[in-house]
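User: Show me a protein chain along with its predicted structure.
Assistant: Here is one chain, sequence first, then structure tokens.
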Amino acid sequence: MFEEKTPHIMVYADCHNSHAKGDFQLACLIAHDLQRQLLERHSSVKVVLSTSETSMERLTSMYPQTGDGLHIRGMDIPVRTLQQFDMLNNSLIAFVDANRCKPAPSEIVLRVLEPETRYLFVHGPHRTSQKRNSPGWIIEMLQWMGSAPELFRLLHPDTLSIGACGLGSERYGLPDIDFPADGASTSAPELNDYGFMYFSKREPDKILAMVEQYMVLANLSRYVVVGPAGTIIAPDGVDALPRATFSEKVFTTFSTVSNHDMRRLIKGAVCPLVVTTGTISTIEAMSDGKLSFYDYRGLNTGFVVNMIEAVRALNDNSRGEDITQLGMLLLGPKPLAPLHLDKTKELLAIQDVREGLINAQQNLVKQAQGRLAPRLLDIIGAAKDESLLARQHKIACLSLTRKDDSEPPKGGQAVRRAAFGNHLYALKIFLKYLPLTEVDSQGGPRERTALHFAALMGHEEAVILLLRKGANPWVKDIDGNTPIDLAATSKALSPEKCVHLADRMRTHAILTDTSASTSISTSTPTSQCGYESSCITQ
């Protein structure tokens, strides 16, 4: 009756900074590269992008929209919130948490996960990478578990993977970030002879200081500014603030632009130096042959250190020391001290130094890009220990233990608790691990099955999961009620939804049952227990 589920990889991103888009861009690039790799391997696995409902607008502004998703570099990728993902007809073989900044609620994540799902933390290039099972890796894993205990108490460590994309052999590499050939822009006009600045959220004083220093280095009369900085530099449409450095300067500001527009504006800047404050946008600028006036902050240590060390290693010529010094000045903390600003201007004026740094950065990005998706697929496809499901079953039972229990629930008791509480991830584990006799076992004061409890509480997804396992919809409790009877009168649902759920169960029963009578009671149940704790098996 039920078609086989379509396997998916979900790439999720969200961000606390309402102005930042780097996490969403990373997720889009990961999703694109994964889908391309899967197609090249003739795999049936699909990729889906996801974020929260509140951040959906930011994600969908990154690339042109299609009917149900985004058109990313010539490829259509569907976009769903976690709530919209159809977990009944689709399965997740992997959940990729792209630069985990703003985690999704644990209960919503657990709804879409399967026992076989690999959970991958993929940090952005700015993060420090830790080797698996190293002290740093263990500390980081414990921090994640502490940040979302409801989620990670259920996930077995063998299903988790932590790593970082970026430069260096210990990292996963980068997604493909070559300049996109598609996605012609209409939101940003063609401009000439301008410098470019992109700011994610920063303190106003720091933004103004960086703008002033950048204008000293660029020495242009027109500037394009993307991000919230535009309201600081040119408030209320005024092109110049009453600061000496801003006099006679023209600012064209955009609060936000698509990724294609961002890349085009950066590449079109007449000055080889641009301002970028996001790590992904900085790497894209480097790939496009630009130097970035970047702002070192404590959270991006990994990227800055890796880049400077790699630049130093690539430049062993007579100008190598100057090239490395210029890289340190551009990537270091801002604003620069006056002496450092003068030195930066001096080094930028030397063609061999300027072009040497541009070439070194481009080569570094070229070496790393395109490596990320194959590495992630290797992790996702790695062989699993055959004993993993048994260990997951033990964890799921522990998660359902109550204060007055002398031991964790097991067998049918555990299934009934999961069904009653709509603990879908635990329920999926039980349905894979336990035999049907346990699923259909009866317990509690009214001798009810897991399907009775799921129907009583109106948990439609739990009901469908149980029916697909083969749970018997004809079993009667001590009052003579079948699960269908309880679904038809559930106090947890509106009358319309009660009818829908009961009809869905009734249809399944008629189409699949061969042993029981097809006459189904439509009368009111002889006893309704409501939701009191005494109804739940102890």
